[in-house]
Amino acid sequence: EDKVVQSPLSLVVHEGDTVTLNCSYEVTNFRSLLWYKQEKKAPTFLFMLTSSGIEKKSGRLSSILDKKELSSILNITATQTGDSAIYLCVRSGTYKYIFGTGTRLKVLA
Amino acid sequence: NAGVTQTPKFQVLKTGQSMTLQCAQDMNHNSMYWYRQDPGMGLRLIYYSASEGTTDKGEVPNGYNVSRLNKREFSLRLESAAPSQTSVYFCASRLWEGLSNEQFFGPGTRLTVL
Q: Do A60 and A53 meet the contact criterion of CB atoms below 8 Å apart?
């Protein structure tokens, strides 16, 4: 079955901590892997990864794809309470998108 | 630009009632999507429209129908609502051409079926 599995399912950390969120998938032939952040409303785009080993960065967030291991990680350094959200990993094909169940991150002040 | 808009924001239905969820985008995107999100389940694809005039089933199409009215609008219809369709529904769109594969999401419709 074509699944996207994220771990951990939930995580509680304190402000200033660094977190690593994991995503694994089963299909080797796909167009891209995306990360989204979802607070109380619609998901918002973070990163799109197409090439293995190339890190994408945006401020304190970074992500990398490992096609050999069929996985991706999302790192958040120096976490803030505003990082509290569900982080979604998505594998995209030509038209279809398969979402993971998400990692719920809570950052305590 | 409003991006992706959805109406209504909230809806309560009784079992067996019908309703249509509306979605529109003003970004001239080719592809449009309907998802449902249940607690602990992530987003699951109901139907999608790769381009104007085409629609295809996603992972969970049973109990739903869609219409791609024109390039801007993509509606989702529940003909006979069931409690299992209680969920948050998101519409999304994507340009399709070029390198970007990002989907843009609407604000969602929270539907409760009693």
A: no
pLDDT by residue for chain A (109 residues), tens only, comes to 578 999 999 999 999 999 999 999 987 777 889 999 999 889 999 999 988 888 999 999 999 999 888 999 999 999 999 999 999 999 988 788 899 999 999 999 9
Tell me whether strands A103-108 and A10-14 are parallel, antiparallel or unpaired.
parallel
Cross-chain Cβ contact A48/B100 below 8 Å: yes
Whole-angstrom CA distances from B33 to B2, B10, B64, B74 are: 17, 19, 13, 8
In B, which residues are within 8 Å of A34 by CB distance?
A: 101-103
Identify which of B31, B48, B106 has the shortest CB distance to residue A42: B106
Partner residues linked to B7 by β-bridges: B22
Separation of alpha carbons B45 and B74, rounded Å: 14
**Would you state the structure tokens that stand for residue B29, as one six-digit string?**
């995107």
